[in-house]
Fold Histidinol dehydrogenase.
Amino acid sequence: MRIIELTEEARTNILENLLKRSPNSYGEFEGRVNEIIENVRANRDAAIFDYTKRFDGADINAENILVTEDEIKEAYEKVDEKLLTVIRKALVNIRKYHEKQRQYSWFDSEESGIILGQKVTALEKVGVYVPGGKAVYPSSVLMNIVPAKVAGVKTIVMTTPPGKDGKVNPATLVAAKEAGVDAIYKVGGAQAIAALAFGTESVPKVDKIVGPGNIYVALAKKAVFGFVSIDSIAGPSEIMVLADETANPRFVAADLLSQAEHDEMASAILVTTSRDLAEQVSKEVEGFVAQLSRKEIIQKSLDNYGYILVAESMDEAIATVNEIASEHLELVTNNPFETMTKIRNAGAIFVGEYSSEPLGDYFAGPNHVLPTNGTAKFFSPLSVDDFIKKSSIISYSREALEPIYKDIVQFAECEQLTAHANSIRVRFED
Amino acid sequence: MRIIELTEEARTNILENLLKRSPNSYGEFEGRVNEIIENVRANRDAAIFDYTKRFDGADINAENILVTEDEIKEAYEKVDEKLLTVIRKALVNIRKYHEKQRQYSWFDSEESGIILGQKVTALEKVGVYVPGGKAVYPSSVLMNIVPAKVAGVKTIVMTTPPGKDGKVNPATLVAAKEAGVDAIYKVGGAQAIAALAFGTESVPKVDKIVGPGNIYVALAKKAVFGFVSIDSIAGPSEIMVLADETANPRFVAADLLSQAEHDEMASAILVTTSRDLAEQVSKEVEGFVAQLSRKEIIQKSLDNYGYILVAESMDEAIATVNEIASEHLELVTNNPFETMTKIRNAGAIFVGEYSSEPLGDYFAGPNHVLPTNGTAKFFSPLSVDDFIKKSSIISYSREALEPIYKDIVQFAECEQLTAHANSIRVRFED
């Protein structure tokens, strides 16, 4: 891996290079995606069956779009027993963590007859998108469904593209069933997002769409935002390790590669105050890459978006970490919890040398759907928050309104909204 | 106001009619908005100064784009003393309510050395958009700035279009100053949104953009979503009153008009189980409209989007209320708190006959920036939540990782991610 002195200029260049990967920069696909969305809005089932034939090579119709109980049973027979066991163990942890995110309605009252509060309600219908293709990530199915379930969403539907044989991957089906999905539809791509946003004869309209996908899926989600809610738009995976001279170079190298293997667009960055560590990590990386099964993807990812940055001071290193706002951040310093207090921007923070990133991907409990591409500056991990919404509660008695009603009339009149003023005044007209 | 029997068909037609007002349906403006955004991204200050000249007729440059302390002082001299007093009173209530929305970091630990948690961090920089034009809403300035301030946002900047004389409305300036804004820039429209999203020489790039605006502003916000965060996209204002035979028709009529006066696209709907009330409200509305200063806007709004719906039962009425998911909902029934328990979808719920909607606009404390156009099914009122974000915290000791590390390796291998498996295995290689 290349080792670079962390200067202001280097930081700016790296940031620019990373942001190139943003799904916002793919304007060229937008026309195509909008066309798909309009077609699905107009022709509904007919459009999604047609796209599924063209893009996935599968014959899907109103009779077979919904995954049946028999298909799920078949999936349980096919899936590795060991995977099922580990899915169930992971589910316990994921549920336990997300249950702590529950939010509650509250109110506050005053004796004159004022009640002010906030009512928390779960969304009613949610759609989870699960990508198809060769890479099958049952963990991602769990991470998207569990928070909706914990929030109390009444209906959770899933869409995923079928294979040519019209089947869905068994591990995906088993994970969805274990997590508590209500229905699974065989449709993928931008057409699935459009179907969930507007509804078709077969696919129900939902209130929110979550889940990762390719560039078509990401752009379709952005296009339907406002008609429905969406989670944040996922970009390629990222890991950043902030380490000092106390870090174990072998651990750091292995962790960097764990994200680099996802995708040629994935990014793996070490920021360290130790030139020694930088060189050892670079050497360890070389050693590992040669042995790993996804070595070609890893090598491309490292060449494109992999960096080892040597900083003059820990403050400078931390400033860069906050500026890049990585999806995953490992802190491997002498006092990692102290370092953590200085971190403003990161999707998930892994504290200490045994807190390896894949622990969070599969098992620990926190969600692995995290803000990417610098969006950790303003977005949060997927959570129960994503599946609830709030309503303000306002209640005043006559006794409470009377002493302040003239203030409200005053304010309304300053804004030249006389019907507003009238609606207050009418209550005290005699 | 027209009185309609609430049938399934009527409900569907009304819903369709209301959704026509969605800012998502204005595809024709998108090209123009994208052009403005691209121009501001490329030419920065030069582009925004040029647009401000063309659209607002004002000469703005790097020297005068920032509102000065002198201009603010001048605004305080110009503004009505009574308005300042009522702004200060309202601020006390708004702050008090929003302080209750604060969220806190938490963690949970296990003795084997596991720490899992969630760190809450305020966004660093936020941009508040304030529309210009004839209608001046200092209340809206307060409602957008206070939650950011309470959340702990470090820098809150505001943009608003200047008048031809290069000045900003004094009430806007005073409200912004009282609420605690850090800087105010004289730029409006889609060009202001682009400037806040990407930064120019004069206007800083922010993490999130909030605030209402015309169709250009709404579409620009949607276009920059992902580069920055945005609040929900505001549509025209709405009020729905759910009332039974116990309601005072004069109060109900006045409240319906308080929203109808906002805009020809605003919607005012009464749903009632009482035909008697329906007729009395319709009559009262006629009486009021004749006297109100904004009667032309009100009449158009009522003709386009005003309805009195007579339902056969309270259950049917409530189902319609939940389906339409209004921005503002007043409950004027015999037992309004019991009715409230059945409401799933509404931006703000005003409970009881003295809880008139304008009380919430100006004074009570809850935010008046609310989801419109059916989006209360999945969006929430603007709140402190909008100005914070979360990071997961994951920390495992060696002792905690050892008993489960083979499960993680197993899961990773099932997903064919061997570098993930390696990063766990490397920690136990001897």
